[in-house]
Design brief:
The protein has 137 residues and is mostly helical. 89% of the residues lie in helices and 0% in strands. The termini are far apart. It is rod-shaped and about 135 Å long.
Amino acid sequence: MDELQTSHQMMHTNIEDVKASHYDLKTTLTESTVLNSDFNINQLDTHEIDELKATITELQNSLFEVKNTLFELQSSQNTVSLTVQELQNVYSDLHASNIDLNNTIFEFNSSQNDLKEKLSDIQTSQKTMQDSIDLVQ
């Protein structure tokens, strides 16, 4: 679960980086654009072009990081799903074992009651035999 939260936090951070890079790109483009109809690429100086390239590279890197974080998040979600499934299977097995144990306890109690009845019958028979022996003497 910690992996999932960490991946989610990384994705959130990367998304914030993408937003910042996007803002930087928009700012750079706005600063670099000349608002007249005679716009010429030569009007941009080398520094502005380098800034624009750097901003685009940052944006691409941030998007790549977001993509990787999404893959990690999906992997973590798959791991969590498998863990939940395993826990559900263990719970089902424990539930079945509990039912078996309850059935065994019931059978044990039934056997114990049967033994008590037989013991009572034997004691009654012994008492009857003892009474008969006492009568004969």
